Structure formats: structure tokens, C-alpha cells
Design the sequence.
């Protein structure tokens, strides 16, 4: 029988925005009928990175900033898995920035879900790359992930959601996961997920968020137009949410399909017991 790891009780503070993400991930996977053992959650470092412990799926806790490299590794080791890399803004947009930029052009069919709370919650509220000017201890303007994502020409799915709107979040997550499961490439979803303990932005964000689909000129197949629309929305003091990019033509562009057209990963054959039994026995024998 195929099994997945048992879920543990959450350790998050009551009211943390990450609960909305957890609920939406479960609901989206259920709606798409993804079997538990075929869904892998790779958690980053930080409060949000423990999400894989709270769902009955298989998961691993990645090294700090190396979340995407490890999640892409899982996908290439077994392309039939649905892989979600889930972490925070501190992990992904600071030490993980190099991997973040390259993930768009590598275009492996995984979902990168960033829970952005504009602070390092786990270590008690220091400024992160997305902290606003005026946040205690911060003297830098915030990093804008969606603008960066839109500036890299690649056939990705790009969206932003808000934990205060779980219904939309579930629908967007479903679209991102479907995109992955069709082998169409990298899906990036940033969720605005308030840290109620060190940066409670629920009220402020509820007033600031703007659904881009309701703005004049909305066309998620046109990167340049969407960059301008999101830029102007930010300049006006608002936060754009919704689907910012989906490629016009539904092409199977995923990295795993280019590298492994027959869906057989070298990892599966290289470490398989059958072909390597004598080598393993020799190795184990040497340890005795
Ligand atoms: Fe959530 Fe903040 Fe508590 Fe961490 S410290 S669990 S981010 S509310």
C-alpha cells in the first residue's frame, strides 16, 4: 500500500495567515483529486516552511534558501509527482534570490508558493526583503516579487493571492497546480499572509488589495501590459492581486519534459534496487 506521512498539529500562532494557505492547499488538492502520496510539499526555512508537517502528504524540509533547487530535484527524480515548494519571503527573496530568478527560466513544472508577511516571523520580527519603509529597523524600499517575475520572459504562471480571501486563493492554487500537472512549467504564487504576532497587516492589506482582473486593460497573456498595470497599481499605493500571467498557448514546456521526454528519471534507474543490488550489498558489507 502506498503511504504518505501523517499530519501533525500546527505550531503556528492563532490567526497566522499561513492557516489560510494550508486550508487552500488541502482544498485545491482535493478538488483536483490529487492522491496524497503523489503530492510532495517541500518546506523552506521559517514559520511557513513547516507547512508540510501539517498535511498528510510526503514532504521534506529544505536547506535555507535552497528550497527551489531541492523541489526541482524532486520533480526531476520523479516527474509524475505534483511538487509544491512552500516558503516565506525571507527564505525566498534573500538567501534564495538566485534560485528564484533562475526558476522562471528553467521552467520546471512545480508550484512555488511564497507566504509573504513582510518580516522574519520565526526569529521575532526583523525586516525582510519585502518590509515596507517605516517598518521598524528597515531603511530600504521593498522588493516586488511580481514585478520581477513579470520581467523575466518565460512561459510561467504568475499570480498573487491574499489569506483574507481563501476562496480566490483556492481557485488560483487550483489553476497553478493544473498548470504544473499539464507539464506547462513553473507556477509562482505569492500569498499575502499576515504575521499576526510581529506584523499584523490584515486590516491594511484588506484596504489595499486590488484584483487586477477588474482593472481596465487587464490581459494576463501580455507581460508588458501586466507589468505596467501592476507597476501603476503599486505606485498608487495599492497591492495588485489575482492572476498576472498565463501563457497564451497551452504548450507543454516544462523542464522535466525536455530533459526526460520518456518520463523515466535517471534517479529512478540509478538508485533502483534491482540493477544495483550487488553494489549496495558490497557497500553494506563494507560497513559491517
Ligand atoms: Fe505566523 Fe508570525 Fe506566528 Fe510565525 S510568528 S506563526 S508568521 S503569526
Sequence:
Amino acid at each position: 500500500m502506498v503511504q504518505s506521512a501523517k499530519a501533525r498539529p500546527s505550531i503556528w500562532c492563532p490567526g497566522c495567515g499561513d492557516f489560510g494557505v494550508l486550508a487552500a492547499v488541502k482544498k485545491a488538492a482535493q478538488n483536483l483529486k490529487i492522491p496524497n502520496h503523489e503530492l510532495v510539499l517541500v518546506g523552506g526555512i521559517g514559520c511557513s516552511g513547516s507547512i508540510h508537517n501539517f498535511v498528510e502528504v510526503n514532504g521534506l524540509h529544505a536547506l535555507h534558501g535552497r528550497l527551489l533547487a531541492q523541489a526541482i530535484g524532486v520533480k526531476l527524480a520523479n516527474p509524475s509527482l505534483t511538487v509544491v515548494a512552500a516558503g516565506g519571503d525571507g527564505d525566498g527573496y534573500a538567501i534564495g534570490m538566485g534560485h528564484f530568478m533562475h526558476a522562471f527560466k528553467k521552467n520546471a513544472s512545480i508550484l512555488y508558493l511564497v507566504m509573504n508577511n513582510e518580516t522574519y516571523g520565526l526569529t521575532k520580527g526583523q525586516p525582510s526583503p519585502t518590509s515596507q519603509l517605516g517598518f521598524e529597523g528597515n531603511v530600504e524600499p521593498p522588493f516586488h516579487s511580481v514585478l520581477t517575475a513579470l520581467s523575466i520572459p518565460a512561459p510561467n504562471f504568475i499570480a498573487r493571492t491574499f489569506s483574507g480571501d481563501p476562496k480566490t486563493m483556492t481557485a488560483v492554487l487550483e489553476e497553478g497546480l493544473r498548470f504544473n500537472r499539464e507539464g506547462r512549467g513553473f507556477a509562482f504564487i505569492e500569498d499575502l499572509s499576515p504575521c499576526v504576532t510581529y506584523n499584523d497587516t490584515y486590516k491594511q492589506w484588506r484596504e489595499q488589495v486590488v484584483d487586477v482582473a477588474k482593472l481596465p486593460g487587464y490581459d494576463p497573456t501580455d507581460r508588458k501590459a501586466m507589468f505596467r498595470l501592476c507597476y501603476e497599481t503599486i505606485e498608487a499605493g495599492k497591492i495588485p492581486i489575482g492572476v498576472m500571467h498565463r501563457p497564451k498557448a497551452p504548450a507543454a514546456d516544462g523542464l522535466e519534459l525536455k530533459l526526460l521526454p520518456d518520463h523515466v528519471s535517471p534517479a529512478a534507474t540509478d538508485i533502483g534496487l534491482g540493477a544495483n543490488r550487488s553494489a549496495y550489498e558490497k557497500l553494506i558489507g563494507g560497513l559491517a
